[in-house]
Specification:
Blueprint (H helix, E strand, L loop, with lengths): L2 H14 L3 E7 L9 E6 L3 H17 L6 E3 L6 E5 L3 E6 L1 H7 L1 H5 L19
Parallel strand pairs: 2-5
Antiparallel strand pairs: 1-2, 3-4, 4-5
């Protein structure tokens, strides 16, 4: 299945169950294992599992392959592996703790600050 179609289906499935803060990150230049990750938030174990099941079912209905699903037992973080795309669905505290968006960003954030310029006196 075309990656754009796969992404559109996955995001649509997440939107259908009211996922929050859906973010798609291109990882094709960072790893050869997959091209994109999708990160989304669900408010409870039940919603996280429902979101994962929605992605699973919508991809299957469209003829796509599901490589695997993990984390349904706890419902705090469920991963749906679609091959070229990996979908991470997490509860807010788990998402904040692991901060996958920062981990997978292509341009590192600068945490250093510039030292103030020294004043020179012309005497």
């Amino acid at each position: 299945m075309d990656i754009r179609k796969l992404q559109k289906l996955a995001v649509s499935a997440l939107e259908d169950i009211k996922a929050k803060d859906i973010e798609v990150i291109n990882t094709s230049k960072l790893t050869a294992m997959f091209d994109k990750i999708i990160v989304a938030t669900g408010d409870s174990n039940r919603q996280v599992n429902a979101l994962a099941r929605s992605v699973h079912d919508k991809i299957k209905e469209a003829g796509g392959d599901i490589v695997g699903m993990e984390g349904e037992e706890s419902g705090e973080w469920v991963l749906v592996d679609l091959g070229d795309i990996v979908v991470h669905i997490m509860q807010p505290a788990v998402r904040a703790h692991y901060n996958l968006e920062e981990l997978w960003q292509t341009v590192p954030k600068r945490t250093t600050t510039r030292a103030p310029k020294k004043k020179t006196t012309d005497e």
